[in-house]
Amino acid sequence: MDKRFWSSRIQDLEPYIPGEQPKDRVFIKLNTNENPYPPSPKVLEAIRSAADETLRLYPDPEASQLRQTIAEYHGLTPEQVFCGNGSDEVLGLCFYAFFSPGRRVIFPDITYSFYPVYAHLFQLDFEEIPLNEDFSFPVEKFLRGSGGAVVCNPNAPTGRTLPLEEICRILEADPNRVVMVDEAYADFGARSAVELLNRYPNLVTVHTLSKSRSLAGMRVGYALGSPEVMAAVRCVKNSFNSYPLDRLALAAGEAAIRDVEYFEESRRKVMATRERTTARLRELGFFVHDSNANFIFITHPAVGGKELQQGLRDRGVLVRWFDKPRIRDYLRVSIGTDQEMEAMCRACQDILKG
Amino acid sequence: MDKRFWSSRIQDLEPYIPGEQPKDRVFIKLNTNENPYPPSPKVLEAIRSAADETLRLYPDPEASQLRQTIAEYHGLTPEQVFCGNGSDEVLGLCFYAFFSPGRRVIFPDITYSFYPVYAHLFQLDFEEIPLNEDFSFPVEKFLRGSGGAVVCNPNAPTGRTLPLEEICRILEADPNRVVMVDEAYADFGARSAVELLNRYPNLVTVHTLSKSRSLAGMRVGYALGSPEVMAAVRCVKNSFNSYPLDRLALAAGEAAIRDVEYFEESRRKVMATRERTTARLRELGFFVHDSNANFIFITHPAVGGKELQQGLRDRGVLVRWFDKPRIRDYLRVSIGTDQEMEAMCRACQDILKG
Questions:
Q1: Which GO terms describe its biological process (chains A, B) (predicted)?
Q2: CATH number of the domain encompassing residue B254
Q3: Does residue B178 sit at the A interface (CB-CB below 8 Å)?
Q4: CATH, residue A298
Q5: Is the domain of A50 the same as that of A18?
Q6: Is the distance from CB of A150 to CB of A105 less than 8 angstroms?
Q7: Min CA distance, A352 vs chain B (Å)?
Q8: Do A243 and B99 touch (CB under 8 A)?
């Protein structure tokens, strides 16, 4: 690649690689933690009614109504809410807003693999702290002072959860740094750190509507934090892109947050299927981490991760394998419908019979 | 504001301030260069048919179909196309992708006021080259070597256009720097630099569907350039946000580009109204720059810019006034429907009678 016209800053940058989005859709798609259930019918109605001639006008750059709706849902004020184009954009803007060059940011070695990419992009110093042998969280190592900390909770791709008391210890250990808690998966059974927001001005939580609200296709994410801290993200966003959420994403986001009943039902189904799948895979000899997310992290003594992924792909099932140290023998499997998970388990059984 | 938790990089950052989006909609809104005509009916159809259960799935991170459609429209290949969340995001990503710290980027002093904001945000050195007295473009000063150049053509907020021959001179003067030509308004009568793309590997053109395609509410923009140069923007985007365009924005964008007939009709109407309004305002004693954009830049010897803006606001007409040296006595007036422009002219007449 001729990089003559590339900025000196990005000559060695390695982008994040998202899970495959097959164009043909014949696969059982358990590779990108999408929700197997459609968005609320009220979301589709809201979109259809917003799809009118007003699309010629810019959206509200402050996303005021959506922020109001999210604030009410969480019992906060709109000044404590920042909305962005999916939680990936929100995380990226937060990395830029809170972390300073020359001050080391810490996060685990096994976690959402976009964190080191943001750090590289923005030329931040960072350290990947190894998870313990059993992939539990090394809390003690997060108590040292640092330029910031990022905790994905439940963690991806392990699905393991850190209790709130431990998050409090990390927040208190160094009250001058921002601790970001990425709660992309928290709706599937973890206790959310949102209840800590009014106690810790250095806490920022990050949320997405892609998973528990079935809206991956609409790109809506948000952060919560103290008004002064949210003002920093707003300042970066308004210096980069005034309107990251289009009119239909705003309408969809609002309707999704408002339909609490649908949300509760949908996440309950996903959690129930997760528990059934976990039990079934353990019967097949898999080691499966206890998960509070909409995916499970699995390994089998008899078959390697890459081999298993390929075997599943050959049988029409897409799952995620990470070519990374320590987890090469693991697969991350998103929770689909009962039928999809049954098909996945049968495919595993078939592979193991060899 | 307590900036304790703000990155050292953003302590002095001053965000871009977009034109007001009034919540009540009783104004005649000529302040943000929106199109007075709705998007193509085919766009609304495409959105309604895409608003289904597949919104639970991530969009195509590569925007392949939209890029293919745009490539065909311009007679290019998809590798020469990059799509983003409005041309503001595209510009931001381009600033990061092409310009290096310590190498001075140049653009005019009077131009789209987001350029210096990106440069501040990303801590780039830059120089604002003064336009000539009559707001014509100082081509000679852009022939010196630099770390990059940005030319808005037609320029905002003046509406004045630089001929392609002059852009060629700038491209040739320093073939090792990227020259970005922001063509947000080019569809309203300027000759596009797209025809130069296959001759100059250092040329990048930037486009938006917000203006000539009436889709400000959907956030679709794109850049065109050589494959190696577009790969740089893609690299930055994929290190920041994999999916900036949601499924409905992708569908809307495609349908908008495909409906060439509607586009031609809509821009023809805007241009005709612009010419009528220009003539009318000149009769009222205004100085009006010749414009190839969907706005005009006007001043009147008898009344100051701020005063005129307020007078128009009092009469229900929103226009844009910039609190900046050299242009404080000017207003930028977006082209609305004939009726809206007639109301605006009557309001001006009323103010001048004073």
A1: L-histidine biosynthetic process
A2: 3.40.640.10
A3: yes
A4: 3.90.1150.10
A5: no
A6: yes
A7: 30
A8: no
pLDDT of residue A344: 98
Q: Does B216 touch chain A (CB under 8 A)?
A: yes
B77 belongs to a structural domain: yes
Q: Tell if the CB–CB gap between B228 and A3 is shorter than 8 Å.
A: yes
User: What are the strands, taking DSSP E only, across chain A?
Assistant: 28-30, 81-84, 105-108, 126-129, 148-152, 179-182, 203-208, 221-224, 287-288, 295-299, 317-319, 330-334
Q: Are residues B80 and B16 in the same domain?
A: no
Chain A, chain B: beta-carbon pairs less than 8 Å apart: 277
A81 plus A33 within the same structural domain: no
User: In whole angstroms, what is the distance from residue B236 CA to residue B122 CA?
Assistant: 13
Task: Please give the pLDDT value at position B12.
Answer: 96
Across A291-301, b (16+ Cβ under 10 Å) vs e yields bbbbbbbbbbe
In a domain, A282, yes or no: yes
Say if residue B280's pLDDT is above 70: yes
End residue of a domain, out of A259, A279, A306: A259
**Which residues touch B121 (CB under 8 Å, ≥6 apart)?**
A236, A239, A240, B10, B13, B92
Is A1 a domain residue?
A: no
**A3 domain-assigned:** no
B244 interfacial to chain A (CB closer than 8 Å):
yes
Residues B244 and B324 in one domain: no
B72, B153: one domain: yes
Give per-residue pLDDT as tens, B130-187: 999 999 999 999 999 899 999 999 999 999 999 999 999 999 999 999 999 999 999 9
| Cβ B143 vs Cβ B114: under 8 Å | no
Strand partners, A332: A297, A320
* Contact yes or no for B214 and A96 at CB 8 A: no
A223 within 8 A of A84, measured Cβ to Cβ: yes
Overall number of domains in chain A: 2
Of the residues B259, B287, B313, the one at which a domain ends: B259
Which residues constitute the domain of residue A338? 8-38+261-353
